[in-house]
Amino acid sequence: MSWRPQYRSSKFRNVYGKAASREHCFDGIPITKNVHDNHFCAVNARFLAIVTESAGGGAFLVIPLQQTGRIEPNYPKVCGHQGNVLDIKWNPFIENIIASCSEDTSVRIWEIPEGGLKRNMTEAVLELYGHSRRVGLVEWHPTANSILLSAGYDYKVLIWNLAVGEPVKMIDCHTDVILSLSFNTNGSLLATTCKDKKLRVVEPRSGRVLQEASCKNHRVNRVVFLGSTKRLLTTGVSRWNTRQIALWDQEDLSMPLMEEEIDGLSGLLFPFYDADTHMLYLAGKGDGNIRYYEIGSEKPYLNYLMEFRSPAPQKGLGVMPKHGLDVSACEVFRFYKLITLKGLIEPISMIVPRRSETYQEDIYPMTPGTEPALTPEEWLSGVNRDPILMSLKEGYKRNSNIVFKAPVREKKSVVVNGIDLLENVPPRTENELLRMFFRQQDEIRRLKDELSQKDIRIRQLQLELKNFRNSPKNN
Question: Which domain holds residue 151?
Answer without folding.
Answer: 16-395
